[in-house]
Design goal:
Elements lengths: L6 H8 L29 H23 L8 H27 L17 H6 L10 H4 L5 H22 L5 H29 L3 H14 L11 H8 L10 H14 L22 H16 L6
Helix pairs in contact: 2-3, 2-9, 3-7, 6-7, 6-8, 6-10, 7-8
Organism: Geodermatophilus obscurus (strain ATCC 25078 / DSM 43160 / JCM 3152 / CCUG 61914 / KCC A-0152 / KCTC 9177 / NBRC 13315 / NRRL B-3577 / G-20)
GO biological process, one term: phenylacetate catabolic process
Protein name: Phenylacetate-CoA oxygenase, PaaI subunit
């Protein structure tokens, strides 16, 4: 009789029977085999902070998208949203791992060993004021139309940034961006198709899409002002000045909204990079309670 191993046995056998932390995003080091040397003339603390900004945006938006699982309007869309969330989670893992390799410090240090944190420690054991994501990704989902408007904006901004990061002097960031561009192109196009379908659909779908635009538009106020870290790294050829992608993003959103018969609202006034500086609303604290709760209750759990 042929023994068919269970999923759990397969995982154990594939990784040598050693215990694994139950909350990790994978078993292998995400940057294994990659030269993680910081380029000459670059402050590792700046590079780590920048990776946190990009990684936190992806992690928090991925968590928001998972809230649609079992709630999406159709089965095919549930699969699509799940896949987009997984893409963003993969980007977050790489970026947080990069942040760890350059020595991100603070309360995120491993409390047991005082070692440099890996991507799991950075994801699960930082408090809200240590996160560097923007207000756009942490805002509650709202209905499906608002989620698609938010995804359209977030993917358009991130795609514009990643397209430029392919030329980053940091080879790790450049490699992450090269892979991410393909994923983000799909994310943006998927959201755009839904915005067109909803905006130019029924009276009810149009109303909901318009409400989504009005809810999401103010969330762009902290997207396009660079922090001091971004300014220094942009000058060094490592990062992208967010102000430099504003016109491209505006053109994309205007084109989609006009074709969807939705209003193009006045661009919100810049408020400064609040989220990038750790200024968040209670929504992020609530989201992190769900994301981090089990890991914090059982920080040494293995399976």
């Amino acid at each position: 009789m042929v023994h068919e191993e269970t999923v759990y046995e397969a995982l154990s056998n594939a990784h040598g029977d050693e215990g694994h932390w139950a909350f990790g995003t994978g078993f292998d080091e995400p940057l294994a085999g990659v030269d993680t040397t910081v380029p000459d003339g670059i402050d590792p603390a700046d590079l780590g902070a920048y990776c946190l900004m990009l990684g936190d945006d992806a992690l928090v938006l991925a968590q928001r998208l998972t809230q649609w699982i079992t709630n999406a309007p159709e089965l095919e869309e549930e699969v699509a949203i799940g896949n987009i969330g997984l893409d963003l989670l993969g980007q977050a893992r790489l970026l947080l791992a990069r942040a760890g390799t350059v020595g991100v410090l603070g309360r995120s240090r491993d409390l047991a060993t005082d070692s440099i944190p890996d991507e799991d420690a950075l994801a699960y054991f930082r408090d809200a004021d240590e996160f560097r994501n923007t207000a756009l990704v942490e805002a509650p989902n709202g209905d499906f139309a608002r989620t698609m408007i938010r995804l359209l904006v977030a993917a358009s901004v991130r795609l514009a940034v990643f397209a430029r990061l392919r030329d980053s002097r940091d080879p790790v960031l450049a490699a992450i961006a090269e892979k991410g561009v393909k994923e983000l192109t799909y994310h943006r196009d998927h959201a755009a198709r839904w915005v067109l379908r909803l905006g130019d659909g029924t009276e009810e779908s149009h109303r909901r899409a318009q409400d989504g635009v009005e809810a999401v538009w103010p969330l762009m106020a902290d997207l396009f002002t660079a922090t001091d870290v971004e300014t220094r790294l942009t000058a060094a050829g490592v990062a992208v000045d967010p102000a430099g992608v504003r016109d491209e993003v505006r053109d994309v959103l205007t084109q989609v909204l006009e074709r969807a018969t939705l209003p193009v609202l006045e661009w919100p006034a810049d408020t400064g990079p609040r989220g990038r500086l750790g200024e968040h609303g209670p929504e992020l604290t609530e989201l992190l309670e769900t994301l981090q709760g089990l890991a914090r209750q059982h920080p040494a759990a293995t399976w």
